[in-house]
Amino acid sequence: MSSLLNESDLCHENAVVWLENPDELDYVRQALDKAPRRRGKPRYERDGRMVGYTELDAEAEADPDSGLQLRRVFFLLPHDRDTTPDGPYQQGAPGEAVDPRTIEPRRVGDKTSRSQRRTTAIAATGN
Prior knowledge:
It is a single chain. By secondary structure, the protein is mostly beta strands. Helices cover 8% and strands 25% of the residues. It has two helices and five strands; from the N terminus they run βββββαα. It has helices at residues 113-116, 120-125, and strands at 13-18, 28-35, 49-56, 69-76, 97-98. Strands 1-3-4-2-5 form a five-stranded antiparallel β-sheet, with no helix packed on it. The protein is elongated.
């Protein structure tokens, strides 16, 4: 599934569940995954680790072909900044990364100076 989301993809979310403290993370990656249930921890089949997920309201309909629900998951890969601070994301962040402090149900979340770890000059110009 695409990890670049629109708020229309999230209209049935009613809760964000964090498995790790989001205040300790500069960014999280987010993606829509197919899950058999609206609630509870979904399966995770990527490298790295799941750090959170969303739960859906009772009106969320499953895909008619697969019977699965689209749910947002938040995750980090082994080469992300939290475990490899001098790695490829020492500055900048992956395209699907947002600041976890800006995530709410039905809201994609924002890229911030913290999540992008911009230099002072870049952050001051807003680029």
